[in-house]
Each structure stands twice: as C-alpha cells, then as structure tokens.
Amino acid sequence: xxxxxTPFDEPQTTPPAPNAAGPDLAALIACPRCxxxxxxxxxxxxxxxxxxxxKTVLIAPRRRAGQHLIAVAVAVVVLxxxxxxxxxxxxxxxxxxxxxxxxxxxxAFAATxxxxxxxxxxxxxxxxxxxxxxxxxxxxxGPVVLDRPPAPHAAAAFRLSEDLRPWSMAEIFVIGCAVALxxxxxxxxxxxxxxxWMFAALVVLVVVQDGFMCRYSVWKSxxx
Amino acid sequence: xxxxxxxxTAREMGLVACTSCTRVWPAGTDRCGRCxxxxxxxxxxxxxxxxxxxxxxxxxxxxxxxYPMLSTRTLVASQEATIIGGAVDxxxxxxxGIALVILTASVAIPLGKFLxxxxxxxxxxxxSALSGSRRQQLYQVVEYIGRWSMIDVFVVxxxxxxxxxxxxxxxxxxxASLFFALSVIFTMLSAQSFDSRxxxxxxxxxxxx
Lengths: 224, 209
Ligand SMILES: [Zn+2]
Ligand SMILES: [Zn+2]
Prior knowledge:
The complex is a heterodimer.
Chain A: E1 2-4, H1 22-26, E2 28-30, E3 37-39, E4 48-50, E5 57-59, H2 65-85, E6 87-93, E7 96-101, H3 102-107, H4 116-145, H5 154-164, H6 170-184, E8 189-192, H7 194-212, H8 215-223
Parallel strand pairs in A: 1-4
Antiparallel strand pairs in A: 2-3, 4-5, 6-7, 6-8
Helix pairs in contact in A: 2-4, 2-7, 4-5, 4-6
Chain B: E1 15-17, E2 24-26, H1 46-66, E3 70-74, E4 78-81, H2 83-92, H3 96-126, H4 132-146, H5 151-162, E5 169-173, H6 175-193, H7 197-208
Antiparallel strand pairs in B: 1-2, 3-4, 3-5
Bound molecules: zinc ion (2 copies).
One zinc ion binds near residues 32 and 34 of chain B.
C-alpha cells in the first residue's frame, strides 16, 4: 500500500542553524526527484511511503530484507558464473551444429575489427556489472545483517552499486535471446542449453532484488 | 488532495538535499556526510550536459540506420540488412510480431526518447503544457525504457556467436551495431544528466506567482 508522507509543515520554524543541525536534520528526508522535504517516519508493515508531491517511493522497509537481498545476491553470482561458461543456445542446420555460451555472445564482436570495443561493453553489461552489483550488495549488507559495524567504505560501495543499476542488463539479454530465436527459426533448429534456464532464473531474481531494496533503510543502517 | 501548500523544498528551507541517499544538509555543504555524494542544490550545467549527450546520441543514431546491422551468408545468398531493412524482411516472411518488436525497440523508442528528453529540457526553460507530475512520469518512462533499446545489439551478438555453421550459414555484426549501442548509451547519459527537480521548480514558481 502506498502512503503519502507527511510534509514538513512548520513554516514558522526557522531553518536549523548549521551548528545545532545534527540531530534535527537527520530526522528529515528529501525527495531526490522533486526536492520536497518530509519528516522521515517509518511506514507501517507492508506500506510504502511515497512523496506527496511526485509519488516517488521514499521508504519501503521489508522484514528481513537484508537476509533476502544477500541470498539473492549469492544466487546471482553463482548463476552468472555458471551461465557464462555453460552452453547457452545451440543450433543445428544441414547436419552442422554450433553451441554458444554467454561469453561467446559477448565476444562475437571481438573478431570484427572496429566493433571490437562492443565486445567489452556487452560483456560488462550482461556479466561483469550484474556480478559486481551482487558482490557489492553482499559486502555492504553482510555486516549489517550480522549486527556488526559497517564494512570500510561501505557507503561508497553502496553508492557505486546504485549508480550501476541502470547498466546491469542481464534481463534485457534474455529477452534478446527470444527475439534472436524467432529470427533464425526458419534457418536452423535451436536448442536451449542449461545456461539459458539459469539466465532466465536470474531475470526473476534481479526483479525480486529490486523489490526488496529500500535504499533509505540501507543508508540508515550504514549510519551507525 | 491539496497538500502542496504546506510542502517545502530543501532549497526553500536553506538546505541542500543529497540525491543519492535523501539526507539533507545545511546549504553550502560540499559533500554528503552519509554517502559521500557531491551536493548541489540543483545539478550545475544540468541542461547543457543533457543537450550535449542528446546531440551525440542523435548523431550516432544516423549511421546506426545507414550501415548494415547484420550480414548473413547462407549457401544460396549473402545479404546485409539495416535495422529497418531487417524488420521489413521479417514482415515479408510473415513474422509480423517480431518485425513490430524490432521496429518498436530500434526505431519508435529511440525517436520517442529523443523527443521526450528534448521536451523535458525545453520545458524547464520555456514552460510546458504538461503538469509537473505528467512530466515526472514522462521522465521516469524515458529512464526505464532507455535501457531496453540495447536489445537489438544483444540480438546481433547472439546471432553472430550462434550462427557459425561454416558454409551453411554464418552471421557477422555490421558497423551499425556499434553506432546503435553508442546512441543508446549516450541517450541514457543524457537522461541521467537531467535534474528532475528542475521540472518542479518551474511548476511551483508558477503556482506562487
Ligand atoms: Zn518528490
Ligand atoms: Zn548522501
């Protein structure tokens, strides 16, 4: 359920003086999309607090989200590594056949001169960045879940993980496979390899991961 | 639900908000003490950066359509297909659905993104017929959809690695795949450079005036 946040509505309050600001400002939250300021109040169970002005979700805590996120991140690392090495798709036509792994797909560009840098970019978008994000999440949330003080540079690590979010494209790659299959359906016979199903599972996990992620709660937990 | 009157922005309160972790700090603070992000009341030169990335994105999109995306060699024929040519081919063979997907992902969405970003950036300077929340929604759609244009590049990568059957059939990527990928990446950077708080500044000023 979406609950609009309560505006910070004390017009007579002068802005807190910089030196006395500490505890006061920490209780506030500003919408990154529209700059509206609210008192940070934890929403009830199952509720998500949204910006009253632009409807951006600001606080969406989940019970045991930390454990879930770590479990998903470990699964992502295992799946990507396995899926990268195992055959992904295989085709057969006129007695000849060929199998391709995810790494082969990325390296398809490497063979042909000017487009070679694309190989690196594609490998990054579908393999390295998803794995890096998962590792960063484990690094940042591991100590939090174990009730330990945050790991060194945890804040920078989490910020990097959030900055990389749009550049993690494993799920787009899976849909790309479906399109590619239809394109060559009348040219050759196509078989799915084990890695294809691993990648498909990965897509579900990535979506689940984003559903559990409440950035505000993570930042709060790193503050201690 | 009229709560806009009591809403105050960080800037009005003499504060600066961290767009990375939502913490607020006294105006003039340089870096966020919680996450280390650089603090700006509004991203400096935001619109110039949006336009710069937008322009290179548009420029890269031209060769992406002129050069072949794929070249296919089979026993009987050898052909090179551009994005639009490939879709037309599919449609001719009766694959209307897939042709539509490709035209949407590679033509309609990129062009729509260029238009939407231009509209948002122009709206900040010259005002817009759309309300603040409509424009915010438009921005979120652009941010969400932008990445999906990469699908065509991945399709090329998959086909080129998979269809290697010697003389029977082989596929290799064409130069358009590079330009297309660059265009998608530049457009994503353009959208990311946009500071959506600018949408609301103009809308709120209008209400007060
Ligand atoms: Zn907002
Ligand atoms: Zn911050």
